[in-house]
Specification:
Elements (H helix, E strand, L loop, with lengths): L5 H12 L5 H11 E9 L2 E4 L1 H13 L5 E11 L2 E9 L7 E10 L2 E11 L1
Length: 120
């Protein structure tokens, strides 16, 4: 996969952004991977703009300390859109949540992230 393909951006978002425990590192990753006007949608929130996305992801991760996101199903892409399935788990234990992310990209950056949680 090309490092900036939609599928690779989806993978890096799960593996790197959502597993970054250091907020400065997470900010750096988001600044690298997300468009300045990116929008993040989930069931509880819509964050518009990179700063709001940084805050929203930070708030989500504050509730999942000690848990790790893993790719459950490899990303697939169609044009500028990618889908990836993930699981959120404590070490060596079954997932506490699973879901899918859909990302829309433009110019090799994430412009929209849609997160669907299957179970919690």
């Amino acid at each position: 996969m090309n490092q900036n393909s939609p599928a690779e951006l989806a993978r890096r978002n799960v593996d790197e952004v959502f597993n970054a425990t250091d907020s400065a590192r997470r900010r750096e990753l988001i600044e690298d991977l997300y468009d300045p006007d990116a929008v993040f949608y989930d069931a509880e929130n819509t964050a518009t703009g990179r700063e709001s996305v940084i805050d929203a992801i930070g708030a989500l991760l504050a509730d999942s300390v000690g848990l790790t996101f893993t790719v459950a199903v490899e990303p697939a892409q169609l044009g500028d859109v990618a889908r990836i399935s993930w699981a959120l788990s404590p070490p060596d234990a079954p997932p506490v949540a699973t879901g899918q992310d859909f990302i829309v990209t433009k110019n090799n950056r994430i412009t929209e992230l849609y997160t669907f949680v299957d179970s919690a």
